[in-house]
Amino acid sequence: MTTAAEIEQRLPAKLATFVRSVRFADGVATLVADASGLGRAAATELERELKAAVSSIEGVADVRVALMADKVQRRIIAVGSGKGGVGKSTLTANLAVALARSGRKVGVVDADIYGPSQPMLLDASNSKPTAEGQTLIPVESEFGVKLLSMGQLVEPGKAIAWRGPMTGSALGQMMDAQWGDVEVLLVDLPPGTGDVQLTMLQKFKPAGAIVVSTPQDLALIDATRALDLFRQANVPVIGLVENMAGYLCPHCGKGSDPFGSGGAEAAARALGEDFLGRIPLAMGIRVASDTGQPPAANDGELGEPFARVADRLGDWLDRA
Ligand SMILES: Nc1ncnc2c1ncn2[C@@H]1O[C@H](COP(=O)(O)OP(=O)(O)O)[C@@H](O)[C@H]1O
Ligand SMILES: [Mg+2]
Predict the structure, then answer these.
(1) What is the pLDDT of residue 270?
(2) Both ends of the chain: CA-CA distance in Å?
(3) Number of the ligand 1 atom closest to the C-alpha atom of 83
(4) Percentage helix, strand, coil for the chain under 3-state DSSP, each rounded to 5
(5) How far is the CA of 163 from the centre of ligand 2 (A)?
(6) Structural class in CATH, domain 75-319
(7) What is d(CA 320, CA 75) in angstroms, rounded to the nearest whole number?
């Protein structure tokens, strides 16, 4: 009579290394295999090969394979601002691309219901997410960043009529999607500090938050509001980023400061928060963003400030 030990012995060596246990009773072989580190496709293939190998053994009527995988430790990082138009989405997209370039597995959730812009920023407007059962499968952008956006789930303009519960459930579906090996999930929050934001923070507990501000005083008051939102939700603030911080002239390459400079850094200091860096106001950033070419995807003057902020975030992730 066939035994579990015999089944184990008869496994080809290349499959046996994955197998952690074999049980055999009433013609049914049950194998537990360790698929840690294998991608989805490789894990499916392993399962198929194990089934084929074991079902050919005499006396085995049925084979069940349970795959274990080490759970990816995924951390959510929220990117917020007190108001719209400060470059929150631009920063989120470029941070994601820069982190991916430095070897991290990154995903982006575009939670901005009324003004989703990540599909454009990450050049993924033409790809729609698929689903497995109830679970959404994010789109792979060409920059090595996975993406789900409200803009991919509803037609432009349609979400405007949505009420709280609907937006909440759509947001939940994006957060609980099949993120696979993604270890850092950046969430582009809707601008402002309303209920959607607070609920989202309380429900999905980001590991940390980044606040974006422009150098103007008014924007900084808004940034303070965003800080309060994160503190209220007990989300650790990683730091402040100053965007549009000085104009980089495309003609002469010289910098100037139409909105003043250093305001966000001083504010960060006064508020007891870290300052993560400053992104210049540059025509090239706007043009590249509109055409789905995030500056952070390339080496160069415009990508560099994003890469520096991404390094700071990377340090924080390694420390936290
Ligand atoms: N540093 C920058 N230099 C030039 N244009 C920028 C910069 N940051 C953002 N923009 C532009 O400003 C507009 C608003 O940016 P966006 O990222 O959509 O802001 P938010 O998400 O905060 O509403 C966009 O047209 C974007 O291309
Ligand atoms: Mg935005």
Answers:
(1) 86
(2) 54
(3) 22
(4) 40, 25, 35
(5) 20
(6) alpha beta
(7) 10
202 in helix, strand or coil? helix
Domain spans, the chain: 7-68, 75-319
For the entire predicted model, the pTM comes to 0.80
Partner residues linked to 188 by β-bridges = 79, 110
Q: What are the beta bridge partners of residue 147?
A: 108, 139
Query: Ligand 1 centre and the CA of 184: distance in Å?
Result: 23
Kindly give, in sequence order, each residue whose CB lies less than 8 Å from that of residue 201, ignoring residues fewer than 6 positions away.
78, 209, 229, 230, 233, 235
**pLDDT tens readout for residues 154-175:** 765 565 555 666 667 788 889 9
The two structure tokens encoding residue 218: 């008014």
Q: What CATH number labels 7-68?
A: 3.30.300.130
Q: How far apart are CA 249 and CA 68, in angstroms?
A: 54
246 sits in the region (left: phi over 0; alpha: psi -120 to 50; else beta) called left
| 203 within ligand 1 shell (Cβ under 6 A) | no
Name 247's bridge partners: 256, 281
- Do domains 7-68 and 75-319 share one topology? The answer is no
